[in-house]
Amino acid sequence: MLIAVLSGILFALLFLFFRLQNGWLRFIPAFLPLSLLIYFSTWLPEVTGGQEILFKYSWIPAMGVNLDFKLDGLAMLFSLMITGIGTLVYIYAAAYLSDRSQIHKFFSCLSLFMAAMLGLVLSDNLLVLFIFWELTSISSFFLIGWNTKEEASRKSAVLALAITGGGGFLLLAGVLLMGNVGSSYSIQALTAASATLKQHSSYVLMLCFVFAGAFTKSAMFPFHFWLPGAMKAPTPVSAYLHSATMVKAGIYLLFRLSPVLGGEPLWNYTLMIVGGFTLLYASFQSLFRTDLKGVLAYSTIAALGLIVLLIGIGTTESFLAAAVFILVHALYKAALFLCTGIIDHAVHSRDLTKLSGLRKIMMPVAIAAGIAALSSAGIPFTFGFIGKDLIYEATMHTGMLAIQLTGLVLVANILLSYAGYIAGFRPFAGALPEAYADTAKPGFLLWGPPALLAVLSLFFGFFPALSSPLVNAVVSAAGGNPALPDLKLWHGFNLILLLSGVTVVGGFLLYLLRKPADSQLQFMDRFEPFSARSFFLGLAEGIKKISHYFTCKLQNGYLRNYMITIISFLLILLCWKLVKLIPNSIDFSTMTPVSMYDVVILVMMVSAIFVLMFTSSRLTSIISLSIVGYSICLLFVFYGAPDLAMTQFTIDTLTAVLFMLILLKLPPFLTLTNKAIKIRDAIISAIFGGVISMIAFLVLQEPTHKTISRFYADNAYSLAKGKNVVNVILVDFRGSDTLIEITVLTIAALGVYSMLKLKISSSEKE
Amino acid sequence: MEFLLVLLIGLLYASGTYMMFRRSMVKLLLGLILIGNGANLLIFLVGDINKGNPPVIPRDFSSLQGVYSDPIPQALILTAIVISFGLQAFAIVLLKRVYLVTGTDDLDQLNSDDQDI
What we know:
Chain B: Pfam families: Oxidored_q2. Chain B: This is Monovalent cation/H+ antiporter subunit C. The complex is a heterodimer. Chain A is an all-alpha fold. Chain A has three domains: 1-262, no CATH class; 281-516, no CATH class; 704-766, no CATH class. Chain A has 32 helices and two strands. Chain B has three helices and no strands. In chain B, helix 1 runs antiparallel to helix 2 and helix 2 (25-46) runs antiparallel to helix 3 (71-102). The N and C termini of chain B lie far apart (53 Å). Chains A and B meet through helix 25, helix 26, helix 27, helix 28 and helix 29 of A and helix 1, helix 2 and helix 3 of B.
């Protein structure tokens, strides 16, 4: 099982190294999803028999993160969809992208995505689930932005990543919270601890986080707008990610967590409201689209809303309806997407106002799309009919809300069947424009996959009972009553049949009466400034502006501004603490008495410092600096540090000489800043100096520890045979430090030497 | 005396930062040297100063006798003085170099991106 899940990742790496663009070689990758499909199918008898197959692999047991995979009905349904539709998409993509030299990279991304998706639906560990969840976001980023040269494509990829990634971040918070409260990350264990979770005070918070993750991934309102944008992706990607798999990850999560967090009014009503609103909003929006993929994108959002609504209702009937509808939708929507891709590929247009009569050049495609459209509308003898039936049955048995919900679903279903007709019939009906007359016929490998999907829609429509074992297993995994009768084609004449009829006929009437037109799209565009999309884009723009402003403000390129910022910040932090520590009185008795020559030196130093600060002569400033240095040298002499005095004396002399040699060639000081700035700088420096004094004074109040000094003093002669303790420390006890110091000095000397010797070329001197 | 030294160190730091806030590169360097001196004195001061003997073992003895200054701050300062000289020497030469190439020692004139040069 581990190999099955991770094989996609392994092959993703492998595909990168093999350029598969030659002839039939590019169909090789399709064997990966095909073999996985066969592998999962072999488990079908056990799973439909009600078993849950567990595979445990320890990964980070100390943190409770293990690669535990659980294959139950729900996981099986999704795995079969991922690998089954995956196989068809792989074949289709190989034909669709035949003229691209990057095809091996495409399959690499696609395999990574498939592996991530499989891992997501099979993981029993929430943290592992989260990792795969993020992996789908990242791999889909590459797939959506596949046309790297188009700006719109890159932008929509970033938008999709931002929305789903942001949701993933919140999901992580939810997962950690659930793991914390339930003291396990295993979904099985959490299901057992469901009551504890629901009674916990942070239950609302958990729901918020989990919903944020699921709604962003499954494009619920108000996060739906990334999905129409993601239609910039190549059509195989749209068909795979945006009909069958990735957008259903959120649905999967809600399904999976239904037994853990569900059953509370908050859970049910939130899902019903969000799902219902999304359903209505998106199905209404799809009326106004003229881009074929736009229609499909919005009808997909509507379908996702419908599934969320059904999960929200939370009865066994609604779970059954949701499970069946997931399968129905995947079959017909993937088929419609693939047909759209064929049209786009052949005539390079997806504009519904222009396409017509294409049945004359691509009959098999027209048939496949037509069947998919019929399944979408819910005509009897298609799988869609069974789905619609179950949906109405679920909404009608919700008690108080039955009438409202049924009405809502009826309206939305009429609009959705219209969208299906538009996408499945419109491009093929009517007269063929002359411009398209000499278009090449699409090959079998292009129309084969959608045709197979359409045939499956019909097959399950005729024999719905065949899907019963699987969907019943899904219902039991979601916490519904598993003892369900088999799905039936004919329920007799009743209200549900009437509703189905109204849907089919209503959608068809709408199709006959309405013509897609650009004017309608422009009408809708007027509301764009109020949409969630504009809000999010505005938010992103605002964040960009703020960070730009701050960057310019902080990184302004002036050294003194950086210093002032750093020092001011330091001062604020230090003053905060130091204010409380200011002593009331100072005890002078413990200090060394001041002698006359101390005072003379201090006076010399202070006056030299002030001269240095305010002089405009370079010579004076260098002399003042030397006075400061030599005074310190004298202080060292008085306080028992002859070595320091000697060093300081040498160094100061050298510095003065160097300054003299070089600075006299520089221009005299100019008055560059005005008085106000000087006063501001003076104040900041004075406070800084004061704070340093304060710190020095406070340190002096603490007793010093002499243990280390004692050690050196006692052992200087006995261990190192030296009598000058300072020298012994430098050259013996800390000898390697001194060696490194000498190295530093050597490097500095080399730098000085090379810079003095370097001749300035004319090009450098501008 | 300690109190006066505390004030002196504060003055050295204050004047050093003030000089570093100026636009001239020479003043920046002078400010750096002043702060360096202040830091050396600070280390010296917090290691307890006294007017005692230097930490040198007298003839015929094998350990320090009487009151002596703490050798550790001295060792640290000695290192610091030498290293800061390396820095100063390099900075002075670099400064000359920058002046020869750009014709200015005004830091604001040097404020340009790589692309502008």
